[in-house]
Amino acid sequence: MIRILANDGIDAAGKQMLTDAGFEVSTTKIPQEKLITGLNEGMFDAILVRSATKVTKQALDGCPRLKLIGRAGVGMDNIDVNYAVSKGIKVINTPDASSQSVAELVFAHLYGMARFLHDSNRLMPQQGAVKFDELKKKYANGRELKGKTLGIVGFGRIGQAVAAIALGTGMKVLAYDPFIASADIFLQIDGHLGLSITIKTVEFKALLQNSDFITLHVPHSEGSMPLITAKDFNLMKTGVGIVNAARGGVISEQDLLDALNTGRVAFAGIDVFANEPHPLQALLNHPAVSLSPHIGASTIEAQERIGVELAKKVIAFFAHNS
After folding, report:
1. How far apart are CA 69 and CA 5, in angstroms?
2. 276 an active-site residue?
3. Which domain holds residue 272?
4. Average pLDDT, stretch 169-191?
């Protein structure tokens, strides 16, 4: 029997699909430092991970039985993909399942920041009963998203899902992607006949210079240079808002703090951090930063879609390689 370790868990629907297909699935967490021993002692043929478990070169060398690595999500920076492939180990992910959930989180941050909810939710419990009028005045200069320009850096599945929400909100969209010239964004309302809108991508510099808000949806490898640094912040409009729900390290966090402190960036929504699970404290404490703990795909709907998509790919792989 093929044994699978879902080390960071798997939705019940996906687990049931695997069990029904004859696989033995364990969801007992093996700590990172005991991963090699646990995989070998458990005689696992495959490991499924989210973002917590790291499948390193050392782990791959130490687990000769391993045939498949599955990432429940999109980014695979916690897996040494190239080395796995070189050893004949299949690596799969679920790029389709979480796009809507990530896109909605982006707008949760955008709406919250535009109306200062990230800050008022911190201060109202402490000061609301005694400084109500002062807080009301402090948050009097909110902004509407309708009519503003949203710059989307990275125009794959998630970027296009963000664009659909933006267009439905009445925003203008600028998109940058070195591999995509244009994309058709389909808007459908309540199941009725919809509208297809073609968005052509623009140069990176043009996006930075002309966007009121910017959201990032690009991959990032550990050790790579940040995409957004001080020189890029200096090209942006004064008072821009920026959201990172892609990967920690895509933005230079120190340069972001500097841009926030000078007012070049009015606020930032951060779901991912360079040093997870130990984020930079200065970023966590900054009053102009809206925070979430890497929960882009953490919805009931997305987790079920991820589990099902992952299960289908695992079943298909072993059906052809058994």
Report:
1. 10
2. yes
3. 99-291
4. 94
CATH label of the domain that carries residue 245? 3.40.50.720
Catalytic residue among 157, 217, 247, 305: 247
Map tokens 């998109």 to a residue.
175
User: Considering its fold, how many domains does the chain have in total?
Assistant: 2
Structure tokens at 55: 């499948």
Residue 294 is among the residues annotated as catalytic for this protein: yes
Query: Quick check: 232 pLDDT over 90?
Result: yes
Distance, CA of 125 to chain centre? 30
Residues 85, 118, single domain; the answer is: no
Q: Residues 229, 267: one domain?
A: yes
> Per residue in 209-227, pLDDT tens?
999 999 999 988 777 899 9
Per-residue pLDDT at 193: 72
What is the pLDDT of the chain when averaged over all its residues? 96
Active-site hit among 3, 24, 115, 276: 276
Residue 113 and residue 251 in one domain: yes
pTM value is 0.89
Give yes or no: residues 18 and 159 share one domain: no
| Residues 17 and 166 grouped into a single domain | no
Q: By three-state DSSP, how is residue 319 classified?
A: helix
Among the listed residues 71, 286, 294, 305, the single catalytic one is 294
CB atoms within 10 A of CB 124: 15
